Amino acid sequence: MMALATESKNWVEYDIHYAEQPVTTYDIDGFVALKRSTKVPIVADASARAVIEVYQMIKRGAADMFHCLLSRVGAFALHPNTRPC
User: How far apart are CA 63 and CA 32, in angstroms?
Assistant: First the structure.
């Protein structure tokens, strides 16, 4: 992790738009350290599998964005008062 945090300081010069899931899934401390070491936005992908995981990452300031695959987390549910198009 330390090597990644050190290298991430140079990411800005490559005009990287964001880094998606740059550390292992459950390493929230790693996300926090990496986010503090770079200006490149950090995106949590596999780490955002449940609401509690996303909440913990938001609370700790571990990611700038979340990428949630509907096939992994379920699907959108229509509100009972919503009519399909």
Answer: 7
